[in-house]
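Appendix B. Chain record.
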Amino acid sequence: MTIQISTRQYPRSQTERTIALARVALSGTALLAVWLDPTEPARYPGLAFTLLTLYIVYSIGMAGAVWNRSSAGSLPVVTHLIDIVLYSMFQYLTRGLSSPFFAYFIFSLFCGTLRWEWRGTVRTALFIIPVFFVMGVAMSHAPGGAPFETNRFIIRVIYLAVIAALLVYLSGHETRLRDEIERLARWPPVAVVDRETALHRLLDHAARIIGAQYAVVAWEAADEPWMHLASRSAATGGNDPQPASTSSTIAVSKHRPGEIDPVVPPPLADAVILCTSALSNSNVSLVRIGDSTSEWHGLPLHVALMPRLRGAGVASAPFRTDQVSGRAFFSDLGNPTAELMSLTEVVAREIGTSIEQLSMTDQLKDIAASEQRIRLARDLHDGVLQSLTGIRFEVATIAAGLDQEPTEATRDRLLAVERAMAIEQRELRLFIDELKPGAPSQELLIALASRLDAMRDRLALEWKTPITIRTHPRSIALSDELERAILLMTHEAIVNALKHAHASRISVDVRLEAETLTVAVVDDGLGFSFKGRHDHASLTHSDLGPSSLRERVTGLGGQMTIESTDTGSRVEIRVPATAEGN
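Structure tokens predicted for this chain:
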């Protein structure tokens, strides 16, 4: 069972628990103060003591009510209003504008901030001040009441306004920190797009987190001598919450060793740097190395970077991973504060990790391309090239017998060669079509049995040797990759027997049983250079048999067994029917 809870409910519940405990503490403290000094409530002491007693009971009850609630609902608004009304009554029953219970109004401001951030602070203050004024006026008109204390009213309103302003600032600061954390959590992935687009997204996101217009990243890869540089500039502010891909530009370049090296003075290689003014040789920068913070006088970066970092304020931090090392720069920061240094350090570390991912992705693409080229070369060798070899042998035989053979026989043999070449042309076209993206053509949808039969006819025509291929069942359905691999492996095993063992008859049995596909190629030739039965482990350990065929079987997670005698051989291949061809 899954229980869904709103992301706002859990923090609200925690807030209500905190407020409930603080309310119990405040009411208990007030009751203790009245008990220690019974003369303190100057007006209506008995009623004030009774209300305080009831209030502490109410506070304890509310603490129990909210302690195990998963959602506060409308309860915070109700309790907030009740608290303000009760606090006004406590002040009215004691000394009015001079009452020590004025501190409860400040508590209400804190509660509004915790519950509804800066909006709660402002609304609570706008509600409390009129209530405070009405209470003071009411007391001045009550029988025996003191005159309205204008000066005290003004002073205490100023207290409330100043405290509210501080709470609004703290709430806004907390909101900014939370937004920064959320943006860090939404760091863009870089491995799913091309390199330049990834760098564009990376610098855009980083600039928005820092609040910068311009960003520059300089880095070196562990196995390259070049200095890579990516710089970002934006037409709109760096604080724009929307993606700035349409309003920002990025330039990526590669520089020779020493051209922009070092990017910062050597003493600042490991330092986080913050400069609050526009860049010049007379800059005074705040630098932090480890836990030590000091000042740096002079230009804190390479002069070649200055045109890329405009505006007032520059923040910079290094990054280092297993594959790359470098430094990130941000400029046009507005009015940066020292706390921006820690954020810059975190963002630079994320940039370094992303650039390392880009570097590893490029390496994997190169490896994949290399493996693809190897696969294509192997497929061509095992397919078309071997068939062309057979055709070449046949043409050579015809050429050698031109003087002995009748013209009609030579003509028939040349027509057979022409048919064999036409078949190979068709097979090559199919092979090329398989490499194209998109849906396979109708020719590629031919069943495995039919394609094996076509291959049998072609090889028998080329090598003038009877070949038998049996498929059980006839309707074997495999993935395109595995089917192509089976065709190539069968073709190679047959041609090896024809070319090297000089077989006069070949039989192939293809069988699908219990999710295992077995291909057995039996010939009556001279066998392999080794004799006896060898399983896959023995063939691999001793490097026996055709290596390309063995590698294909291994890549499919299968096994190959060879039984060789002086009167023929048997090559048996077993692969999972769900294997992916390669």
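Further analysis of this model is presented in Appendix C.
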